Structure formats: C-alpha cells, structure tokens
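Example 3.2
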Amino acid sequence: MRYPCSVLALAAALVLAGVEASAFDHTHAKLAAVLDAFVQDGRVDYPLLKRLGDLEGYLAELKAVKPEEEKGWVATRRAAFWLNAYNAFTLKAVLQHLPVPPRRASGYPAHSIGNIRGVWDELWFEAAGRKLTLDRIERDVLLGELEEPRVRFALFQGRSRCPKLKAEPYVPEKIDRQLEDDVARFLADGECFRYEQGRRKVLLSELLVENAADFDRYDDGGFGEFPRKLRGLAAFVASRLPEAQGRAMRVSHSMGSLPPDWTLNELPLNWRGRQPPRSEKK
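Structure, written as tokens:
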C-alpha cells in the first residue's frame, strides 16, 4: 500500500497552474549550476567548488527572500526552498573549514564533517529573514512546519550515502517525485537498508532508526511484534518496497540499525582527469 503525500501533490498542481508569483527563482538555478559542476555520485570536489563555484551567489538569494514572501508560498515551494537551503548550508559549513581537521575523541573518522565543532547545532545560517542552525531547519521547519518525514532520505549530512547528495536541486514542480526517488534509492542501497529474510530482520541506517518517531503516523498495525516506536517507520519502508519484498518484510520480527560511514564525501583529487568542470565548458 502506498501512502499519498496529498499536501505536496496538491501544492505542486497549484504551482503548475501558475497561481503564485514570486521574485525568488524557484528553479534554484544557481544551486543547480553548483551541483552539476562539482558533485558526482554523491561526492563533492570541495577544493574546486571553493575556488571556482558560486555557492555564495545562491546563499545570497536565500538571504534576500522576505519572511512574508516565504510564508506565502505553497508547501512545495517552501519544502524545496528549505531542503535546498539545508544542503547548501551543509556545503558551506564544509567549505568554511577546509581542510576539515581531525578532532581527538570526537568519535568521527579523521576526515569527517562531524569534526567541525557544532556543525549541526552551533553554526547559524540566514534565509528568508530567519537565523537557523541545520538542526532547526530540519526539526522546526521541514519536520515541524512542513511535516515532511521523507526529508530523512534527502538531507545531506556530509556523507557519500544514506542519504546521497543529489546532483540537482529540489524544485516545486517535481519535489514529490524527487523525494520518492530519494526513498527508492536509499532502500536500494545495501549500506542503508537490508532485509534478512532468513532471520526475518529489518536493518536500516542508524540515523533513520534513531528518528523513527518522525514516521509514527504511518503505523498501520501490521508490525505488532516490533517495539511501538518502530512500527510507523517499518510500515513506511514496507510501503515503498516492491510488492513482494514489502509482503515478505511484514512477517519480520525485529529491526536493527546499520552504522553510517561518517567519512567526508570528498572526491579524489584526480577524479576529473584532464576534463574541466562542466561549469567551465564552452
């Protein structure tokens, strides 16, 4: 069974109908240029982005939006705006701290966004008249005001997967489909999700399991053997799997977690060979 996200679907229809005008570029073209030129398979050429990219131009557009303008947008425009803002601010945090130094007793690998002190809850960013940390964009806006748990499969956190940074921005007309694609890609990655049929056990990325409460509304009573706090997440995942796999998962007994790889998602220095970045091509 699929659970429709009717709010975003309806809002997308309103955008396509042209019922709303805005000075902000909702194609997020400046971010699209950055992602297209410097991201490959979820990894980023941070040194080249810092030297040649125009991430600051996009961040300036986010900052220029008036609060009353942003509040008047339909849900799809707001969701695309804040999801792109979160991912762009994460890129900015890494660029500001290159090379990211190791931090003793941090619990993270030597090259990890986690070694940037306070990266999620102490660094402040500005957009649409609001000063927010990454945690507050995630919790207060995307999960709170917009009530969109699928962002768990889309928020970029400096890793190369689970979830993977897209090489395109989210846009209002496509965001519902983009988020569904993110969910499907996440569940197709064995580092993010596995179902061990012999043990009848579901294994999901630790960060998803830790935030299972975001999916409580999807609890359909089909995972009664699971702890109550995991039933909604399990039902959501089962609804997004191919039908046969989803049915098989519904006879599972337990859910475990897969530890994330916090190594920074930087591209190797020679990844482009002799090719210039796409933004420099004529």
